[in-house]
Amino acid sequence: MNENYIYGHDLTIKEISERCKFTKEYVSRTLIKNKHYTVTFDIKMAYSYKQRGYKIIVWGGLYENVLVFVFQKKRVNLRSMPF
Question: Where are the chain's structural domains?
Fold first, then answer.
C-alpha cells in the first residue's frame, strides 16, 4: 500500500526533517497528558497534521529521549468512536 494513502503525502522521514527543523526542547508529562492536545511520535503523521493546518505546540521536542509532536487538536475519546 502506498504511504500517500495513509498519510496524505509521499515524503520520507529525511525529507520532512530537512523541511521542518526540530525544536529538540524537552516536553513535560503534563503537556503530553493534556486532553486538549494531540500527541504523536510518528513524524509522518505529524507532518500530515501540519499540512491540515493544525496549530503546532511542539515540533520535534524530546520526551524521554524520543521525538514528540504536539498539536492543538482535541484528542479523540475512544468511547466516541463509531465502532
Answer: 3-75
